[in-house]
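#struct-help
A.M.: can someone run this one for me? Single chain, 215 residues.
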Amino acid sequence: MDRRKALKNMGLAMGYTVATPTLISIIQSCKSEPAIVWTPDFFTADEGSAVTKLVDIILPKTDTPSASEVNVHLFIDKFANEVMEKEQQDFVKMSMSKFMDKVLADSGKEHIKDITLEDLEPVLAASLKVSKDDKVTNMKMINTYNKAVAAGQEANLDDTVSRFAFADNLRGLTIWGYKTSEYVGEEVLAYLPVPGEYIGCADTQELTGGKAWSL
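D.P.: on it. Structure tokens below:
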């Protein structure tokens, strides 16, 4: 199945569906800001460069634009900076640090700015390649870690689980940001800027040709 068809049929399953004023403003601010002059607010410049590469590994250019071409990396940076709580921000920084440490160690490089797509891809793939049972175990460990941090207790999280947490969170945010981008909202999903008549007893196939509705 090509990505365009997959996006058309994707429901709102990511769990990030509340269109708060802050979220709406973030989405709107990411429409036209040129990525070439992007200065991250939450990530460092080198981390921002790595995130840009990572989102394009997750959603590369096919019959639809790549994630960075619709500014998903800007969206993630703004969301982390403006919406996440301090504890969430700290967790992202910690888990990203563990992820990048692995990339640097495996690539033999010293600086994040020198990391390439080829360096990032195997670590991302390995971090996401977990069984259902392992994912459940990882989530329990992450939850225990976050509860300990919230209680002001000393907490440690296994490096492998930390890398999984970063990769899994980034994948979810990438898909969410991509689906809420202007291009996907208007060109791929069913888009109706001015609501028409209400039809209460019709399925999606009949109303939109099988497309999920754009937010």
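A.M.: thanks! Residues 3-24, 32-36 have pLDDT under 50 and may be disordered.
D.P.: also worth noting: The chain has ten helices and no strands.
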